[in-house]
Amino acid sequence: MSANGSPMGFGRMRRKEDARFVRGRGTYVDDVRLPGMLHGAVLRSPLAHARIESIDTTAAEAHPKVQAVITASELAERGLAWMPTLSYDTQAVLASDKVRFQGQEVAFVVAEDHYAARDALALIDVEYSPLPVVADAGTSLDESTVVIRDDLKDKQDNRIFDWEAGDKASTDAVFAKADVVVAQDVLYPRVHPAPLETCGIVADFDPIAEKLTAWSTTQAPHAHRTLLASVLGIPEHRIRVISPDVGGGFGNKVPIYPAYLCAVVGSMITGRPVKWAEDRSENLMTSAFARDYHMRGEIAATSDGKILGLRVRVLADHGAFNCTAQPTDYPAGFFHIVTGSYDLQAAHCEVTGVYTNKAPGGVAYACSFRIAEASYLVERLVDMLALELDTDPAELRMRNLLRPGQFPYVCPTGWEYDSGNYPAALELAMKTAGYEALRAEQAAKRERGEYMGIGISCFTEAVGAGPRKHMDILGLGMADGCELRIHPTGSAVLRISVQSQGQGHETTFAQIVAHELGISPDEVEVVHGDTDQTPFGLGTYGSRSTPVSGAAAAVAAQRVRERAKLVASAMLEVSPSDLDWERGRWFVRGAPTIGRTITEIAAAAHSSLELPDGVEGHLDASCVYNPPNLTFPYGAYICVVDVDPGTGQVKVRRFIAVDDCGTRINPTIVEGQIHGGLADGIGMALMELMAFDSDGNCLGGSFMDYLLPTSVECPPWELGEMVTPSPHHPLGAKGIGESATVGSPAAVVNAIMDALKPFDVRHADMPLTPAAVWCAIQGRPLRSDLAIE
Ligand code: MCN
Ligand code: CUM
Q1: Under a CB-based contact definition with an 8 Å cutoff, are residues 262 and 70 in contact?
Q2: Which ligand lies nearest the alpha carbon of 289?
Q3: From the record, what ranges are coiled-coil (predicted)?
Q4: 659 C-alpha vs ligand 1 centroid, how far in Å?
Q5: By the 8 A CB rule, do 349 and 338 touch?
Q6: Fewer C-beta neighbours within 10 Å, C or N terminus of the chain?
Q7: What are the backbone dihedrals phi and psi of residue 727, each rounded to the nearest 5 degrees, phi first?
Q8: How many CB atoms lie within 10 A of CB 626?
Q9: Is 558 helix (H, G, I), strand (E, B) or coil?
């Protein structure tokens, strides 16, 4: 322990960054105020699909406080009317020909203050001719349906891509010989990450130095800089992206949004800094959504409950522009990990991506690139299979889970899982839950007409993208750099490429260095979120910070340690091969009292001491870490609910979560990540929904309509811990940031379906609002994502 009680490496420790957050001293983009700063506001389309006949900005320009009104025609002069997306599509920065979703950006006003900018929006006159709207992905490929992306040459329909994984022939073969096949349409509705802090930018273009400084809410500052350079044509060394404190991201802050470019252009036109800060409705209605996967799943098994295979067909609604963020070769993300935690013989999945007149973005919301959808589907199917076979769902899972001896395990769609002990995780969850007793309680309650349900979910995650050979985003290979400097007095500064949005990197990354060097985490300053101050890397999403950047930090620290050994050998006048390491200190083998601490060695490395050949001085080291594989955290969850059949109200009474993310750097932070993800899961299972009407009007534009879970809906979490280190990560650590969000919705829905078993309900789609549950009990499941009926 260090003086203030923090561990000298891994272990529980309060978050360093909270010292400023709990005092209200964080600095978010909207806190940035520059001299002479102007304010931007976006005029958005009220219609989901319409031709733009004319845009008249005369009155807005005449407003005394307005400095500039930008439309697509100004942008076109700079070659900026359209921008590339992360999925090799293009997106209108400001609409010129048509608007394609409600809330689409049409014009950008720059004014002296925020209020004037907003007021001036009302002075812009846009004439629209409405077009037919595609609000339902299910109709997007009908022949009579209007083509949304007529801007794309040769585009005759609304299809974006067809993609498949796994082996069709062998899958068909196992289905042909199966005793039982269960098929079900399962919707994972459109939801939204809804971070506490909405998106925003302060763009400051210096016309003399021709340098752009952009303070923006981004999860990936370096990738944003590269993208801004290629879009704007400003050389990359003259762009600085600063991502200060970020108030939640959950994937929402991965893309570059049109208003960011408008703010930059606004700054170029006016010669002054321009701030644009999104409001809540803009964030909900127009920024990166998640899910919207319309899935048909089939599961095949023998009559004694051996699961054989899985067949999946998906219609993926990507909205009006294909802006989803995932590695290039994976248009459906990592959805094909759909075989989950089970030992199957074959699997095949086909995904068709389509355009609709809905907001673009996609993937975001603690999803591990679509594993959220895959995991939910397979866990629903396994429960339906248990129902069909009249088997206990825990027993069915136990029979089919991968065994520890099968790792490293290559699943039928090609992923190589690194490590795990799945049956032990489920056993621990069942023991913690008191599973047998819960089943007995349920049986007794059913006798009394009370509806209690127990739901299980076993999931496998795949986080920490690259390796760079197989994974890139827009050609940028997925590896991350890190630099570690050791000061003459022995304290350290670690510069990393990833960016925390609340995950506590300033603490855990300091703990990694502390662990490797035997110093206190308080002596390690972590610098991130500024491209001028940190090495290049692809940023934080897909829970890749610990698996990739954390590994980089560990390797850099190990390199420091090795250099320190050479310096220590000069100090002690012994051969390096005679030195041994113990926490923080090199000492002479066999003479443990003769040694030098890292602090002493750092001082010597900066002194006039003659150093061995090949050691230039100082202890600094860097690393670019190219992960050999993803890491595969997993878990086993059990949820207990009580359902009131009269009102359809669901109460989540207990939630047991056993997670294995390998070595835990800071168990308190890990548990915090799990708590948050479990709340997300309850939210999506019970209330979160981005619905649309048949005119494409978004029905989730405020927190009055888009419901978020609070502590009231969450039970006291009961967590269990397993530690199976990743064999290929230098610390044995796997990511944890999305596990609970991925794994928990199925546990909640499975519990509710289990409660409704006496009503012969097999499946109902999320969110299971009281109305949806009530309708399911009445035998009329609700299609909740469309307000069309
Ligand atoms: N950690 C640890 N031991 C491990 C694994 C992780 O101590 N074995 C710690 C990490 O060092 C880090 C935190 O747990 O401090 C999360 O680490 P990791 O799993 O590497 O995930 P990232 O840091 O890459 O965070 C991204 C992940 C994603 S993709 C989403 S989405 C999400 C999530 O994190 N968004 C969040 N959790 C969030 N938490 C907050 N508060 N805000 C968000 O926006
Ligand atoms: Cu998919 S949400 Mo997180 O990967 O930023």
Answers
A1: yes
A2: 2
A3: none
A4: 14
A5: yes
A6: C
A7: -70, -20
A8: 16
A9: helix
Query: Could you tell me the two tokens for 229?
Result: 């350079």
Atom of ligand 1 nearest to the CA of 502: 41
Pocket test for ligand 1, best of 199, 246, 252, 503 (most atoms within 8 A of CB): 503
- Residues 6 or more apart from 122 whose CB is under 8 A from it? none
| Residue position matching structure tokens 């600063």 | 242
Beta carbon of 511 within 6 Å of any ligand 1 atom: no
Residue 366 near ligand 1, beta carbon < 6 Å: yes
Neighbours of 427 (CB within 10 A): 17
Phi then psi for 128, rounded to 5 degrees?
-115, 145
Q: Is the pLDDT of residue 781 over 90?
A: no
Residues 604-639 have pLDDT tens digits of 999 999 998 888 999 999 999 999 999 999 999 999
Task: Answer positive or negative: Cα dihedral of 186, 87, 83, 541.
Answer: positive
User: 711-759: per-residue pLDDT in tens?
Assistant: 999 999 999 999 999 999 999 999 999 999 999 999 999 999 999 999 9
363 CB less than 6 Å from ligand 2? yes
Residue bearing tokens 């939204």: 192
Q: Which ligand is nearest to the CA of 544?
A: 1
Structure tokens at 712: 């009231």
Q: What is the dihedral of CA 93, 99, 103, 107, to 10 degrees?
A: 50
463 CB near ligand 2 (under 6 Å): no
pLDDT (0 to 100) of residue 785: 75
> For residue 328, what is the enclosing H or E element?
none
Pocket of ligand 2 contains residue 366 by CB under 6 Å: yes
Task: Tell me how far apart the alpha carbons of residues 518 and 490 are, in angstroms, rounded to a whole number.
Answer: 11
Q: Does residue 737 line the site of ligand 1, with CB under 6 A?
A: yes
3-state secondary structure at position 31:
helix
* Ligand 2 pocket: which of 738, 739, 741, 742 to mutate (most atoms within 8 A of CB): 738
Ligand 2 atom, smallest distance to 367 CA = 1
Q: Measured from the CB, is residue 508 less than 6 Å from ligand 1?
A: yes
Ligand nearest to the CA of 325: 2
Q: Express each pLDDT in 379-425 by its tens digit.
A: 999 999 999 999 999 999 999 999 999 999 999 999 999 999 999 99
Q: Whose CA is nearest to atom 34 of ligand 1?
A: 737
Residue from 733, 739, 701 nearest 720 by CA:
739
Q: What are the b/e assignments for 402-424, b being 16+ CB within 10 Å?
A: beeeebebebbbebebbbbbbbb
Q: Residue 253: CB within 6 Å of ligand 1? A: no
Domain annotation for the chain: domains and CATH numbers: 18-26+479-625 (3.30.365.10), 32-131+196-248+253-286 (3.90.1170.50), 293-465+629-777 (3.30.365.10)
The minimum-distance atom of ligand 1 relative to the CA of 666 is: 7
| Pair of tokens at residue 655 | 């939630």
Determine the Cα–Cα distance for residues 231 and 771; give it in Å rounded to an integer: 47
| pTM for this model (two decimals) | 0.97
Q: Is 542 in the pocket of ligand 2 (CB under 6 A)?
A: yes
pLDDT in tens, 212-223: 999 999 999 999
Looking only at Cα atoms, what is the longest distance across the chain? Answer: 86
Single-letter amino acid, residue 330: Y
Residue 447, H or E segment:
helix 435-447
Reply yes or no on whether the pLDDT at 465 is more than 70. yes
The CA-atom distances, in angstroms, between 395 and each of 435, 638, 661 are 11, 13, 24
Determine which residue's CA is closest to atom 20 belonging to ligand 1. 546
Three-state DSSP at 203 gives: strand
Q: Is the pLDDT of residue 1 over 70?
A: no
Query: 251 CB less than 6 Å from ligand 2?
Result: yes
> Across the chain, what does the average pLDDT equal?
96
* Residue 613: predicted pLDDT: 85
Ligand 2 pocket, residue 498 CB under 6 Å: no
Nearest ligand for residue 219 CA? 2
* Helical pair 435-447 and 422-433, crossing angle rounded to 10 deg: 50
